[in-house]
Amino acid sequence: MRLPKLKRIITDPDEFLSDSQLKSLSMELLELIPMDGIEGSPLDSEQIMEVVLRAAVDTTSVNAVTENTEDTPDRKAVMDWLHTLEKESMLDTVNDVLALLAMTILDRERSRTICLDFMDNPFHGYPDDEDEIRRMKARDGTTKCHRYCTAFVLAQGKPLTLAIEPVDGDDSKADAVERVLARVEQYPFETEKILMDRAAYAGELIGVLRETAPPVFPVKTGKDSLREKLSAAASHMTEETICEGKEHEQTYPLAVNVTYHNGDRGKSGLKQIGYAAYGLEDRTPQQVAAIYNHRSWIEKSYEKFREARALTTTPSTTIRLFYVGVGFLLEQLWVVLEWAVLARPRRGGRALPVEFAFSAVFLHGIERVLDEELGWKKKHRTNGEGLPSGYDHGLG
């Protein structure tokens, strides 16, 4: 897989990076995704991808784009093409392009800390198969969602997306994490440790994580012996066992970090958090907590991704996964361009440009170009009559 235009801009950039180039580079990535299309159709994949890109950069739907433009196919034609996407090949390509982008700015020789997470994408509508739907806390007016497992690495002051995998209806968390880590293991660098949230606190999943690298994650406090250890008034290192006497029994090093609430969220007194700290047995609980807190950076990535996710109510899990992939690809492209092309070299590292904001500059720049190319409607036909007789009394 080759990205000749992208490579030229990264290695030998012009004095300025234009909105037109941002759009072209984005399209170059999207056109790598295989789509069979409709045999005999006068359309081509570029026309379809432009509609999807316009929907993504404005966080809107394909229908909204086709209704408000003059030079695009209608919604049905676009969706017919999108329904020819093949899930596995599309997902493989999205992950391959994420890897290509990430490795343009990652040092191959350094070991890395990997952050894993489960991301819920709210679902509105009626799925083809109820088994594909997961349940979440109510958000955006629904408790239904599609779930994805993601892997990130922190580099150049930003989180880079390494891999994404859908969590299908029959998947366990361990299954999804195993697939994501299999993709991460294809990268040329060593994984030093893995940071994950409390979802990791399950014996089977801990076993999967440990096969790749030592995991670090906060523990759940349901067990009496664990609650007793977490009630301590001073930070300390100890051990705890999960799934005791069962198939997936795990004994892990437990770091109990004790701090003060200091009025945070209206709370006061001691604050005790326990971490499973594999590979960090020689560290203090404060050091373990500081290492884990780096994981909070991935929330910034999610914030950006949601600004570039096309909206849909389609029951197709493949199209939904495709939209998720487009969002992460756009964010990754932004991170790479920001650091490689726009950041100013200086002693001690490059200075990232604060003016190259993801939504207001990068996405909006692409939107402006597409509006011109797709014939965004500047005026709208009226009914020629206005208010019916008798309804104009509020005008004085």
From TrEMBL:
Protein name stated in the entry: IS4 family transposase
